[in-house]
Amino acid sequence: MTTSTEQLSTTTLLRFATAGSVDDGKSTLVGRLLHDSKSVLTDQLEAVEHASRNRGQETPDLALLTDGLRAEREQGITIDVAYRYFATPRRRFILADTPGHVQYTRNMVTGASTAELAVVLVDARNGVVEQTRRHAAVAALLRVPHVVLAVNKMDLVDYAEPVFAAIAEEFTAYAASLGVPEITAIPISALAGDNVVEPSAHMDWYGGPTVLEHLETVPVSHDLTACHARFPVQYVIRPQTAEHPDYRGYAGQIAAGAFRVGEAVTVLPSGRASTIAGIDALGESVDIAWAPQSVTIRLADDIDVSRGDLIAPADDAPAVTQDVEATVCHVADQPLAVGQRVLLKHTTRTVKAIVKDIPSRLTLDDLSQHPAPGQLVANDIGRVVVRTAEPLALDAYADSRRTGSFLLIDPADGTTLAAGMAGRSFAAAATGDGAADDDAEWDF
């Protein structure tokens, strides 16, 4: 008989994020999802029931399952990203419940940066609003491959199909113009539980999946072995002991792809060539290793390799550059200005840099580019040109979310200023800032 632990070990993992405007019901949806899928412990539910009674509510406020901060409960809003872990017999989930306020867009960037699916909520009474478009744009910028439009509060519009159809059509057209490859629209009522875990008895005109059913069945590819192989060196192991007098290994986590013993590789940014002499994983020698394994790679030649270097196949190495053109989401309270000196952190490498230019800031209303803004402030999304003091082996974000992303950091106090995505921003040519077929190259 298969145990629950064995079942979980064979199920796939889906990372997803929720987003939406204020009071669209994100936390209630998450609470309903956890409650109806029986992923809430008894003491957690009792605590929520007790807190709800203290606030004069007759029924449990399921939003309190995720809104744990005192300020969140007092204001009835989500402020920080809340991570929740739950599982069903079919799949395991890591959920990031992100805030809806404009001033917390940067929090959505954090939550969606590793997501394979984004659930964007819309209030059926309000339809697609500016913040809805903002969240769709962030999901497209971060190359989230699957987007679910959850049209919430259908109970407040008498479960009317025309209301849902109009919202779904408008959002789908907008998201498709950004290059989002897959959009699924689901009419729900998070408060009443319609189409969240169980099918709704009030919307017989809808024949699609519930939210949980879609989350359990959406195809998720974790096969990174077909991606461009990349190994950022995190630590050099040189024990120099009697047992290992000449051992020299380069430890780290494989970011993408696979490496094999005997494979010709290049060490970047130096460009020195060598061959993989051995791979050590969990104290044993192996012939092949793949992402996201943490391993130690040994090279046939004693060449200069240090933390921050990147090992890549000789015939598939990224270009090395000191001029980085990227789209960034500014996450700090202090502005990012032209001429500002920053640190750029890419994988395990951190280098000094200067912001040479900010060509444009994105206007999310119509996806137009506001030219030469001079600076970016908190939650702005814009294009930047950064000159680094040392060369970087940087992929385009469209090719790899792992080695195409970076952080800009304040060298004075270590504050993260911006999250960057190298290369073009959107996948669709409709925005004037990308190639129409880029989505075929999305690497997840």
Task: State the main characteristics.
single chain, 444 residues, alpha+beta, eight-stranded antiparallel beta sheet, six-stranded mixed beta sheet, 8 helices, 25 strands, globular, disordered N terminus, disordered C terminus
List the helices and strands and how they pair.
Layout: H1 4-10, E1 12-20, H2 26-36, H3 42-54, H4 70-75, E2 82-87, E3 91-97, H5 105-112, E4 117-123, H6 130-141, E5 146-152, H7 161-177, E6 182-187, H8 211-217, E7 231-232, E8 235-237, E9 249-253, E10 258-260, E11 264-268, E12 272-281, E13 284-286, E14 288-290, E15 294-299, E16 310-313, E17 320-330, E18 336-337, E19 341-346, E20 349-363, E21 368-371, E22 375-376, E23 381-393, E24 405-409, E25 416-422
Parallel strand pairs: 1-3, 1-4, 4-5, 5-6
Antiparallel strand pairs: 2-3, 7-16, 8-9, 9-15, 10-14, 11-12, 11-16, 12-13, 12-15, 17-23, 17-25, 18-22, 19-20, 19-24, 20-21, 20-23, 24-25
Helix pairs in contact: 5-6
Oligomer: single chain
Annotation field: number of helices: 8
Principal-axis shape: globular
Question: What share of the residues does DSSP label as strand, in percent?
Answer: 25-35%
- Average predicted local confidence, pLDDT: 83
* Largest sheet entry: 8 strands, antiparallel
Q: Segments where pLDDT lies below 50 for 5+ residues?
A: 1-10, 68-79, 428-444
Return Rg in Å. Answer: 24 Å
Estimate percent helicity.
10-25%
Distance between the termini: 35 Å
Strand count: 25
Structural class designation = alpha+beta
